[in-house]
Amino acid sequence: MEGPRPGLESLSSAIPASPFTLPSPMPRAPKRLHPADADAAYAAAQCVVETHRRITDYLRVGLTLAEVDAFVARTLDDLKCRSCFLGYKIPKTPAFPSHACLSVNDCIVHGTVGSYTAPLKRGDLLKVDIGVWHKGW
């Protein structure tokens, strides 16, 4: 095979850099966590697991996403953690308005309380993504 066609090798330099790219090189994650950090990370993950468990018992036809999000907020407060989504902001965009990403039907991911205002009905597919801050994790 011969080399690339003339002019194609410079194509990538013509594409502007994304404002969302991370600085290069990406920071390396630690290979081993200190046992206290591992315990704290595990505790944070368990807050997410417990919130999903509770929301499974709570969900029913007729709820709105605002009610579901308020339930998530109360649950996180009860578990002494907070949402890492609420208020999340990247430059030149509004802050994320929900405690959880609540995506209904055709909305694949990152839905908010305002993205679907009708009450949930039988057959709706609700995807719930929860992220927490707990003990530094």
From TrEMBL:
Taxonomic placement: unclassified sequences, metagenomes, ecological metagenomes
Location of the Peptidase M24 domain: 43-136
Protein name per UniProt: Peptidase M24 domain-containing protein
Chain segments carrying region Disordered: 1-29
Gene Ontology terms for molecular function: metalloaminopeptidase activity
GO cellular component: a single term: cytosol
Pfam family, one: Peptidase_M24
InterPro entries with a match to the protein in the record: Creatinase/aminopeptidase-like (IPR036005), Pept_M24 (IPR000994)
Gene3D superfamilies: Creatinase/methionine aminopeptidase superfamily
Organism field: hydrothermal vent metagenome
